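Inverse folding, one chain.
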């Protein structure tokens, strides 16, 4: 489907063309930039549709909005609102049925503004995705931004409900997550209930899946998290691809699956239970024991276990989580939790490595230590014997 964004920014076209060209290049995205105008005129422009090069009009897919709408436009108009004011008005129009539910993207050069509007899984957050303009000059960031801008349009397509239709049923939630019956039985019932309860709020459904499923740990694992749970050192294991091939049926393929590869963690544990000789739970085994069992299952010898990070200390070898800052594999017993006020019950806490905390790296990344783990920090210093000192 065509992906057409209406972009509202007080800068002139010549000043934003660089950013829009980056987002449009090889992505299937089209963007029309307009300077500030009254909110009714913005809505009128959106409803009129995106004019293509052939002269036809296609529906707009969503909005890209700058927060600081302070400059006069070339025709001497000045906005009497901020980007957040416009976004709130648009959300209200969508709720009232006057405007089709669609993505709202914040694009700003102000890093503090962007940081304060990072989306979470609640319906109160205005924006589905936030972008720092300067970051678009980094190719990896730009590619990710383009992927999200495409996937979020698809997400709204699946999440929208006709007016008057009741909440999602199990099959519709399963369709959103695009998983088979085997995997769906492992999806946390609290997530299913949340998505059903928010059926008439597409923004909340999309935000929940993006923030508390795709971008969080728990039900889904990244490749690095998957390797930790299986105890495999990817860098030293030439047959890691064979592991991924064996687990291909358990990849997440629902909305936002193009943003980054994820695997269903409970389904992986189910696969392990059915294929391992003793049926021992993964997290009850050491990395070496997991790898030896994997070799038997897959018929390979080219897999190596993860080495412990604290050989001089008393570290558990039953690694299960990764430090959110350094990526270091850890047993939760040897990890510190991040303070989170809005974690959902189906999410796994974020964890920190003691070295990252002692070096204050977590603070530079915007993470705070859970208050209940303050005393544990001192215990880990003594038990793990990290070389870094606070």
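Residues assigned per position:
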């Amino acid at each position: 489907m065509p992906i057409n964004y209406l972009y509202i920014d007080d800068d002139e076209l010549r000043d934003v063309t660089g950013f829009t060209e980056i987002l449009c290049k090889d992505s299937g995205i089209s963007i029309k930039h307009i300077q500030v105008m009254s909110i009714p005129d913005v809505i009128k422009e959106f409803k009129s549709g995106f004019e293509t090069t052939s002269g036809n009009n296609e529906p707009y897919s969503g909005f890209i909005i700058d927060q600081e709408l302070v400059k006069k436009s070339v025709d001497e108009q000045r906005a009497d609102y901020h980007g957040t004011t416009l976004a709130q008005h648009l959300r209200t129009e969508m709720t009232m049925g006057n405007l089709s539910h669609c993505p709202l993207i914040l694009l700003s050069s102000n890093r503090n503004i962007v940081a304060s509007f990072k989306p979470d899984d609640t319906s109160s957050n205005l924006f589905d995705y936030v972008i720092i303009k300067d970051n678009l000059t980094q190719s990896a960031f730009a590619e990710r931004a383009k992927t999200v801008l495409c996937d979020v349009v698809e997400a709204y397509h699946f999440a929208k409900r006709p007016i008057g239709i009741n909440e999602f049923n199990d099959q519709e939630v399963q369709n959103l997550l695009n998983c088979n019956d085997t995997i769906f039985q492992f999806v946390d019932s609290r997530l299913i209930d949340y998505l059903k309860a928010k059926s008439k709020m597409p923004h909340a459904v999309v935000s929940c899946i993006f923030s508390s499923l795709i971008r969080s740990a728990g039900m889904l694992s990244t490749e690095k998290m998957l390797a930790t749970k299986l105890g495999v050192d990817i860098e030293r294991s030439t047959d890691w691809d064979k592991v991924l091939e064996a687990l291909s049926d358990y990849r997440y393929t629902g909305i936002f699956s193009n943003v980054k590869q994820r695997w269903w963690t409970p389904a992986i544990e189910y696969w392990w239970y059915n294929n391992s000789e003793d049926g021992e739970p993964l997290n009850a085994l050491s990395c070496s024991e997991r790898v030896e069992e994997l070799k038997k299952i897959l018929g390979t010898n080219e897999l190596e276990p993860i080495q412990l990070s604290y050989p001089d200390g008393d570290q558990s070898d039953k690694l299960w989580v990764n430090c959110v800052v350094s990526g270091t594999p850890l047993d939760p017993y040897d990890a510190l939790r991040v303070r989170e006020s809005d974690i959902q019950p189906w999410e796994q806490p974020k964890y920190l490595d003691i070295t990252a905390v002692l070096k204050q790296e977590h603070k530079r990344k915007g993470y705070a230590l859970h208050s209940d783990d303050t005393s544990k920090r001192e215990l880990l210093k003594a038990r793990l014997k990290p070389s870094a000192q606070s």
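The mean pLDDT is 90. The chain has three domains: 3-149, 217-306, 308-390.
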